[in-house]
Amino acid sequence: MVTTATGIPAWRIHHSRLIRFDGVTLPFQQKMTENEWGMSVVERIWDRLTAFDSATVGAAQLVYKAHLRTYSVEKLRELIALGGPAYEALLKNIDLIRQFQSNEGMTLMDSRDKFETHQYSFSGLDDILSQFAEQISGAVGIPLVRLFGQSPKGFSTAMQTLPTITTG
Which Pfam families match (predicted)? Predict the structure, then answer.
């Protein structure tokens, strides 16, 4: 076999060393543009896979940052503007607070300072992630039950499961 397509060098390749996977069938003109190759199976789902990955990372970051701690310091702007030893002492104080909060769960501060925590609650994250998972499932053509190993949901799914291929 001698390759003669545009952009591919003419090499002799023995037929026993080549397996051709055409991929997804393309329209004629696009197939000619792709040197008679089909579209990659991975290419079809790449944008859905990237969106799913971004959604899961974003959801994880939201959950991880679901609390806000505020520390009010009297005359903070003046301390920052002046800089020097007072500013360094403030930074050292904040470092010690952070250390004691992680080690001992304590917050040490001046009586005039104020420390507050605020919690966020999220609803609907599981629905959003499920929608992205369904988009991947649709793009690949594999049911969610098999692709993600989820049990079937909805009506008349109590005793139904898809057959699973097992190797032993």
Answer: Phage_portal_3
Identify the burial level of 70 via C-beta atoms within 10 angstroms of its C-beta, where 0-12 means exposed, 13-18 middle and 19 or more buried. Answer: exposed
CA atoms of 134 and 45, how far apart (whole Å): 12
51 three-class SS: helix
Token couple for 31: 């197939």
12 phi and psi angles, rounded to 5 deg: -90, 120
- Report the half-sphere exposure of 162 (CA within 13 A, side-chain side): 14
Q: What's the CA gap between 97 and 108, in Å, rounded?
A: 6
Question: pLDDT category, 52, cuts 50, 70, 90?
Answer: very high
Residue 147 DSSP label: H
Q: Which residues pair with 24 in a beta bridge?
A: 39
